[in-house]
Recover the amino acids of this structure.
């Protein structure tokens, strides 16, 4: 398991203080664009061990009486039915999930902006009606011709002026979204324009966790971000505006650097002058100052890059796409001297697959021990690995059978004779259900089941692409899985 490398308490304190300082700088309303995920930032928790997925939302809890949430979703993403890869749900559904989650933390969340609307977008109109039926306030922001370079049009009644003004009641407005490219920044700037026309004082700041501005360009934490955004064409770079203004090398990414001259003009048009000398100046991120063990974060990031590489390979295989993302990540790995076999579970899984000529899996337990699983007539490789890992954690002899053959066979018959399955082997969900039933009368099964929580954060590698069921079970258990880009069957049609 990863060594703790990040001081969570220090981060929450520093971050809260810095946001308060930025609010004081403007003296009125602050629109704070939140990049990344607010309460389930799994990437940050993987590359900064000690950073919990809810770190940022915990920090905002301390400001909940002063803050409100605005969620932005692009009309394009509605039309394309875009899906969050980490959760397997559409952006549309994620908006509702986010509202519920924010409210559960005691944060005000009642406004949704649908951005980049065109007149013919039926999906946007339907989603607006759905949100309004649920009691949410919905605001429409439109596509602007020549955005983002045509400043005279953007800063006019035909540009931002056409957008519906988001009525807010708090001085700290958190602008977030289900994913990148949703229009968060444009929403913030549109609000500045409308506030200025109304004679209201307001400002803009950006909370983007990665890349971490005060870490070196080639630091594994920053390179892991580049790997994570290989589909967006993001590239980390030295901020030239910051270097020119302060003589200091800091890291930003290409999109912010490229857009900054335009942003400067927008600020000058809207506010009279720009409050920032560089894109890095806009940020409020204190993550880099909260790293307590640099080497732990470096190693965690190296492992994340390998995971991202495998993820890209699998996605390209599933979608029959060109290997663009995987090749980008391969270049990052090459620059770092990383190999796939630097992931400890890869070689053991491949060796079992080679020996058995069938799918195999391997898991690394919290104590470093590696358990492998092979395919059998009764169990799939992942199911076998899962049972054996629970036995190891519970101190149960390897020869002990947690599930008797007579308890597995009825499940197999049900699957093949009544539910239309061609594969009689038990999936991980079926194994866990069977184990739960056995736990009522079998002490070993109960002891094994009690170990499930210890699998959170463990690394797994499989020699074939996982089906949706096993994928979901591992996700729910918090297990970090990679797979070889190989299908378990030769069928042309594959159910997801």
């Amino acid at each position: 398991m990863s060594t703790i490398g990040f001081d969570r308490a220090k981060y929450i304190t520093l971050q809260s203080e810095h946001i308060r300082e930025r609010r004081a700088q403007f003296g009125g309303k602050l629109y704070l664009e939140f990049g990344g995920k607010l309460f389930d930032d799994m990437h940050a928790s993987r590359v900064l061990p000690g950073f919990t997925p809810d770190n940022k939302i915990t920090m905002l809890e301390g400001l909940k009486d002063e803050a409100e949430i605005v969620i932005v979703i692009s009309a394009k993403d509605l039309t394309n039915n875009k899906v969050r890869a980490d959760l397997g749900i559409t952006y549309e559904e994620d908006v509702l999930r986010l509202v519920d989650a924010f409210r559960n933390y005691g944060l005000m969340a009642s406004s949704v902006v649908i951005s980049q609307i065109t007149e013919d977008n039926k999906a946007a109109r339907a989603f607006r009606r759905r949100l309004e039926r649920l009691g949410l306030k919905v605001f429409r922001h439109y596509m602007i011709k020549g955005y983002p370079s045509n400043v005279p049009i953007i800063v006019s009644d035909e540009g931002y002026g056409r957008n519906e003004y988001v009525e807010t009641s708090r001085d700290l407005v958190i602008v977030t979204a289900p994913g990148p490219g949703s229009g968060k920044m444009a929403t913030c700037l549109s609000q500045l324009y409308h506030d200025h026309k109304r004679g209201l004082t307001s400002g803009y700041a950006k909370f983007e966790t990665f890349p971490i501005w005060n870490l070196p360009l080639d630091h594994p934490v920053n390179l892991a971000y580049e790997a994570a955004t290989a589909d967006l064409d993001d590239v980390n770079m030295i901020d030239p505006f910051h270097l020119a203004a302060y003589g200091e090398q800091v890291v930003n990414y290409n999109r912010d650097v490229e857009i900054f001259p335009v942003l400067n003009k927008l600020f000058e048009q809207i506010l009279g002058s720009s409050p920032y000398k560089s894109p890095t100046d806009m940020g409020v991120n204190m993550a880099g100052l909260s790293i307590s063990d640099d080497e732990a974060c470096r190693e965690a990031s190296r492992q994340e890059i390998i995971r991202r590489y495998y993820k890209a390979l699998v996605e390209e295989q599933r979608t029959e796409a060109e290997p663009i993302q995987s090749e980008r990540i391969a270049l990052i790995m090459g620059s770092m001297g990383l190999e796939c076999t630097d992931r400890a579970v890869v070689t053991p899984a491949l060796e079992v697959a080679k020996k058995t000529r069938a799918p195999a899996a391997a898991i690394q337990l919290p104590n470093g021990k590696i358990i492998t699983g092979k395919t059998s007539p009764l169990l799939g490789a992942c199911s076998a690995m899962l049972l054996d890992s629970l036995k190891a954690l519970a101190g149960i002899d390897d020869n002990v059978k947690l599930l008797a053959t007579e308890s597995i066979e009825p499940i197999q018959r049900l699957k093949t004779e009544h539910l239309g399955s061609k594969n009689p082997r038990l999936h991980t969900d079926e194994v866990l259900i069977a184990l739960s039933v056995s736990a009522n009368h079998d002490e070993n099964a109960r002891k094994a089941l009690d170990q499930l929580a210890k699998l959170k954060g463990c690394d797994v590698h499989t020699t074939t692409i996982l089906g949706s069921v096993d994928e979901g079970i591992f996700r729910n258990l918090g297990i970090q899985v990679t797979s070889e880009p190989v299908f378990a069957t030769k069928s042309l049609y594959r159910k997801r």
